[in-house]
Amino acid sequence: MNRNYLVLAIAALVPAVVLAQKVPEKEVCAAALATLLHTGADRRFERSAKEGVQDYFVFRSRKNPANSDACYVAGNRVMWRIESAEGINKGRWRIHPMDEKVSFVISGDKVTIVLEHADRTSTSESYSLKQLAKDMR
C-alpha cells in the first residue's frame, strides 16, 4: 500500500483532536491571589495591562483599595506581584526559585490552585469558575 494512502487511512480512523479548553486567565488569577493572600473573594478585577511583551491583569482589594496585585498565566503556572494603588510602585514578579510555585488545574467548572512552598510541601484550594466570574464584578 502506498505510504500516503496508509497515513490517510489511519487519520480517518483516529477521532478528531479535541481542542484544549481556553484557560479563563482572569478567573485563574483571582483564585491564585485568593489562595496566596488568604483573602477569599476580596479581590475585584480592575484592568488589563502590558509590560514589555507580557500582558497581565490587575486586581484591587475591596477592603483596602490601596492594595492591588498583578498576575498572569504562563502554561499551568501563575506569576504574580504586589503593586501600589497607583501602579507606580511595582513589586517583583515572584519567580525566584525560593518563591512559592503557583500552578493550577481546571476540571469542569472548578479550578484548583496548588501552592508548592520552598520546603517542598504543598497546599491547594478549589474554586468555582462561575462564582469567581461573578465575584470579580
Instruction: Compute the average pLDDT.
Output: 79
Question: How much beta, percentage-wise?
Answer: 35-45%
Distance between the termini: 60 Å
- What is the 3D shape? globular
Structural commentary:
By secondary structure, this protein is α+β, with helices and mostly antiparallel strands. The chain is 23% helix and 39% strand. It is built from 3 helices and 7 strands, in the order H-H-E-E-E-E-E-E-E-H. It starts with a helix and ends with a helix.
List keywords for this structure.
single chain, 137 residues, alpha+beta, four-stranded antiparallel sheet, three-stranded antiparallel sheet, 3 helices, 7 strands, 23% helix, 39% strand, disordered N terminus
Write the layout of secondary structure elements.
Elements: H1 3-13, H2 25-37, E1 43-51, E2 54-61, E3 67-74, E4 77-84, E5 101-107, E6 110-116, E7 122-128, H3 129-135
Antiparallel strand pairs: 1-2, 2-3, 3-4, 5-6, 6-7
